[in-house]
Amino acid sequence: MATTSTAPAPLLHSTVLDWYEAHARDLPWRTPDASPWAVMVSEFMLQQTPVKRVLPVYEAWLERWPTPADLAADAPGEAVRMWGRLGYPRRALRLHGAATAITATHGGEVPDDHAALLALPGVGEYTAAAVASFAFRQRHVVLDTNVRRVFARAVTGVEYPAQATTAAERRTATTLLPETAETAATWAVGVMELGALVCTARSPECGACPLKRHCAWQLAGRPPYEGPARRGQTYEGTDRQVRGKLLAVLREAHGEVPQARLDEVWPEPVQRARALDGLVADGLVEPVAQGVYRLPR
DNA sequence: AAGACGTGGAA
DNA sequence: TTTCCAAGTCT
């Protein structure tokens, strides 16, 4: 089953590559001196988190832990504390776990092999491909939310991609991937950047898009999204909110925290206890003694 | 395979 | 004010 036909791949390639060269943001993890570790740190932090909020934490993180071994030598709780308010603090724990694994089994060097990357905690399909592509200039399909949206529009002609990645999307991305590794790597980050800056979720700037004459969605008159409602998760009153409040107390208090301090953040005792138990189960919080907690050592 | 998992800024 | 969304991963 063919999708809407598009311009020949080489034309799309040069169109995106030229646009990227002219419009790419200067981000620290894209500079030539950014190490594979720096790229990996940025990828962990950028999971579900905007660039602007990542930047200051990224800088502080790499200054403190310039190599995986530096991080591995420190307590996981320090990683959680340094993570600050980036959100999804399990990522900090997993990044510490990845650093530990890299130090223990890869000689302290971030592996350049996709499978080895995928085996690290916190590294899924996207992050493995991103690190292999961006840090090691390999040829991989890099499918993140930006790329999926650009392809949904430009190739398939719909405003938004499906909720979960489909085989058809992988096929499209594979077909469009340039043959040469170096070109493929720049293409990957270029399509991502296009999705981040122009082909955005809310209000795309189609007038400024280099693909406007090729884009199936544009050519179809930008029909509105028709699929099932994309559920927005409520946050107020959830365990996630309580976990966030509890962990904020632990982060800001250097050292041990008595139960009473934690009890102040949420009035409902059952949910509060459940949230704290969850944090302990996740390894984000460590019970020291009866009614005393701290970040993990 | 649907749901859990933080946080804050923009519309 | 409410809703949506931001370079996902794990179970």
Automatic annotation (TrEMBL):
SMART domains: ENDO3c, FES. It catalyses: Hydrolyzes free adenine bases from 7,8-dihydro-8-oxoguanine:adenine mismatched double-stranded DNA, leaving an apurinic site. Keywords: 4Fe-4S, DNA damage, DNA repair, Glycosidase, Hydrolase, Iron, Iron-sulfur, Metal-binding. PROSITE patterns: ENDONUCLEASE_III_2. Its EC number is 3.2.2.31. CDD domains: ENDO3c. It is an enzyme of class 3 (hydrolase). Residues 45-197 form the HhH-GPD domain. SUPFAM superfamilies: DNA-glycosylase. Pfam families: EndIII_4Fe-2S, HHH, HhH-GPD. Its cofactor is [4Fe-4S] cluster. Belongs to the Nth/MutY family. This is Adenine DNA glycosylase. It comes from Kitasatospora herbaricolor. The lineage of its organism: Bacteria, Bacillati, Actinomycetota, Actinomycetes, Kitasatosporales.
